[in-house]
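User: I'm putting together notes for a lab meeting next week and I want to include a structural view of one of the chains we've been expressing. I don't have a solved structure, so I'd like a prediction I can at least talk through. The sequence is below, exactly as it appears in our construct file.
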Amino acid sequence: MPTKDYYKILGVEKGASADEIKSAYRRLAKQYHPDLHPGDNDAAEKFKEINEAYSVVGDAEKRAKYDRGELDSDMGGAGYNPFGGKSGFTATGFDDIFDMFSDAFGFGGGTRRRSAASSVGSDITYRVELTFMEAVLGCTKPITFSRMEKCPSCGGSGAKDPSHIKPCDKCGGSGQLRRVQNTIFGQQVTVVPCDKCGGRGRIVTDACKTCGGKGAVMKNKVMNVTIPAGVENGSVLQLTGEGNAPAGGSGRNGNLLLEISVKPSALFKRDGYNLYTTVPISYYTAVCGGQIEIPSPEGVFIYNLSEGTANGETLRFRGKGVRSQRGVAGDLFVTVSVEVPKGVSRAQKRALEQFEGDNNLKNYSKRKAFLDEIAKTYPKK
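Assistant: Thanks for the context. Below is the predicted structure for the 381-residue chain, given as structure tokens.
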């Protein structure tokens, strides 16, 4: 039996279905893909281990042998190929694996789809600063940024006119080159963009004077963006197709990524969709009760506080927190803070002393319980 528990590596039970195994693999492969963790050796090793596990339990025949303990114990040793086979794999096998990776990362599959993915413009990141209430309620913000747009002179072709475009003689117009490498796993086939035409599959013999053959020019863009209610600090909103145009003009624009920065509030603290605030009240209001003003996203409302409210008591108002676009509404938690007056006059002190004298311990249940507990703990001798 192999020493590695491939089911545990993928986070599934031994009796998991093929769909459950495939779903777990895609989730982990996306999480630990080296492109998302450049320079992270631990993530690269984890990614390799996940592929190794899936290459076995994701294949019905190999899984059966693995469960019976009929596979070699050193699954990752020389000659082992995580894509199937002992001495390399075919181009068809590679395409199948690439399709799976492509689906997992959301840009289509196969070498044909990969070519299309390579003609996508780069993304633009823009930082949007919001006040606390703008983030809670949502708003519309005007922004100005620079981006690459399709050249108006050549229509994005990069050429002076269509007659000055010819297929690339190195890749035959496909925009891709296949490379075969010998590794410890056998022969590995990779598909890379053509270095001569930059993956476009064509060569411009006489460049457009406006864009210099790039097919795109830099322009300023002014637009109003809608910020949905309930966004949090550090979240990223994506505006599809509002990024840079691709080089060469063919393909679609990248995306505009809005990084949300929310300024802190002097009134509220936020936890998810819940809001927390502290309302100071007078000693008189705490004793006798009365109306207090409470802030909320919808404005200030009046609440009738009951008499005898203790310092630090928390009130909960359901549905008065942050409301999202999906209709989810958090709660508002209000902590009462009783302010003790300073600079009390002698007459006022005498009045307070008289007040205390008129109220026996029955009116101070917590203090009475405290004193009773002291008497039990320290009995008089």
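A couple of points you could mention at the meeting. The first strand starts at residue 124 and ends at 130. The longest helix spans residues 41-57.

User: Perfect, that's what I needed.
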